[in-house]
Structure formats: structure tokens, C-alpha cells
Amino acid sequence: MNAAVLAIIQAAIVLVAGATAVWWGGVAVTWVFGRLSPAAETAVLRGGEWIGRVERTAVFATVLTGFPEGIAIALALKGIGRYPELKTGSKVASERFIIGTFVSLLVAAGLGGLSRWALQVI
Length: 122
Hints:
Blueprint lengths: L2 H33 L2 H4 L6 H17 L4 H20 L2 H31 L1
Helix pairs in contact: 1-3, 1-5, 3-4, 3-5
């Protein structure tokens, strides 16, 4: 296979999988939140959608590049940044934070791992 074609295929895998991780992760989190009790619907942390996108991008990138320790860094930064709100906020907001983070993490890490595997196979 031509080196230029291979590079284009690899870039396409990374871009499509990365965009999918960021977008579908948000869809998955919204879907899971929709399945929670109605009381959980009212507890919203400001900026959560954007923070989730950045989180999924970071997790996807760290898994793709073979630096899974980066997941711990991203989660620590997110936790430190949210700590004041979670400490003084409601229990429902804390639960949504944990659930949203785990769902988001699973989608991004899964697609990052799948992309890493695909890049090794081609």
C-alpha cells in the first residue's frame, strides 16, 4: 500500500473515531441520564457538556497514544475542578457527576482502544 494512502486511512480512522467518541459519548450520557429518576433530571452542573467533550477527547487521545495514565490525570483534573460544587451541592448532582463520568469514560476509552487496534492491523 502506498505510504500516502496509508497515512490518509490512518488519519481518517483517528478523526472519525475521535469525533464519534466525543459526540456519541455525549449521546450515551444523555441517554443514561434519561433513564434515571426524574429527580436526577433537575441536578445539572454548569458546563458539564463542554467538560464532558474535553474529558472524552483527553481519554480518547491517551488510550490511542498508549498513555492510559493520562486517564487518571484527566479524571483528577475534572474532580479537582468540580470538588467545590460537589462538596456543597446535592447528592443527586454528585451521582450524576459519577455516572456521567463513567459512561463518558467507557465510550471514549472503548473507541480509543478500537482505533489503536485498527491502526495496528492496517
